[in-house]
Every structure is written in C-alpha cells, then in structure tokens.
Specification:
The protein is of the alpha+beta class. It has a single domain, classed as GTP Cyclohydrolase I, domain 2 (2-Layer Sandwich). The chain is built from two helices and six strands. The strands form two sheets. The chain has a four-stranded antiparallel sheet with strand order 2-3-5-6. A two-stranded antiparallel sheet has the order 1-4.
C-alpha cells in the first residue's frame, strides 16, 4: 500500500508480447500499460536508431528523443526498442521519420502531446535535426 494520502494503485500487469520473452527481431507494435497517476511527462532517448537515405541508400544514424505527456497509457520500453530497430531497413528522410514516430506514439498512447527530435550524426560535415510535434 502507498504512503498515506498517495494515489498509488496496484494495476493489473498487461500481457506483454515482448517484455519477459525472447525477442528475435524488430516490430512496429508499440505496447503500453496504464499511466500511473501524476506522471506528467515521459522522455526516452536512444542513439540506436538507423534508417537509410531513400536517394543514396547510405545509412543514416540518429539520436532520438521521444517526449510525450501520457493521459491514459505509457509506452513499454522493450517494445519501443524493437520499434526503433524496425526502421533499420527503411528508406526515409529524417523529417518523415520524425513525423511517423510522433504519429505512432500518439496513436499507441493517446498522449495529449508528443515531440520527437531526431539528431542525425554528422555526415558530409552537416548536422541535421528534425522535430515533429503533435498536440498542445
């Protein structure tokens, strides 16, 4: 039981497809769990995001920051790792990738706000940052 006056609830644990199980490959399935009370914002950061340029087919390596405000659901981190992995064979410009990811996070969590920032590792002397934002 939580501290006196707190709103900590024991929620049923969802039946996750990835968490606690062996994983053999990437997946676009973003799994969620009920958002705990009082969680105002969640941020994930990873430097393990890769896609490739749709024109040159050269690999693009990114650092990604996903920041969202949960209203009902939170992202489960192992499914997010598999989701990020799923882009390694995709041909997308950074701007498109940021937009797709923001849309998918909002679709999975019903977040009131989501901001995805992609920072492409320096290539050809240029640093690129793409930001996609949904909500207020």
């Amino acid at each position: 039981m939580g501290a006196e006056g707190s709103d900590v609830r024991a929620a049923a644990v969802p039946d996750f497809k990835a968490l606690g199980r062996p994983v053999s490959g990437p997946s676009r399935d973003l799994e969620t769990f009920p958002a705990p009370a009082h969680v105002a914002e969640v941020t994930f950061t990873s430097d393990e995001l890769t896609s490739h340029c749709p024109v040159t087919h050269q690999p693009d390596f990114y650092t990604v920051e996903i920041r969202y405000r949960p209203t009902e659901l939170c992202l489960e981190s192992k499914s997010l790792k598999r989701y990020l992995w799923s882009f390694r064979d995709e041909a997308m410009f950074a701007e498109t990738l940021a937009s797709v990811m923001a849309r998918d996070v909002v679709g999975a969590t019903r977040a009131s706000h989501c901001r995805v920032t992609l920072r492409q590792h320096v290539r050809g002397g240029l640093r690129l940052e793409a930001v996609a934002e949904i909500g207020a």
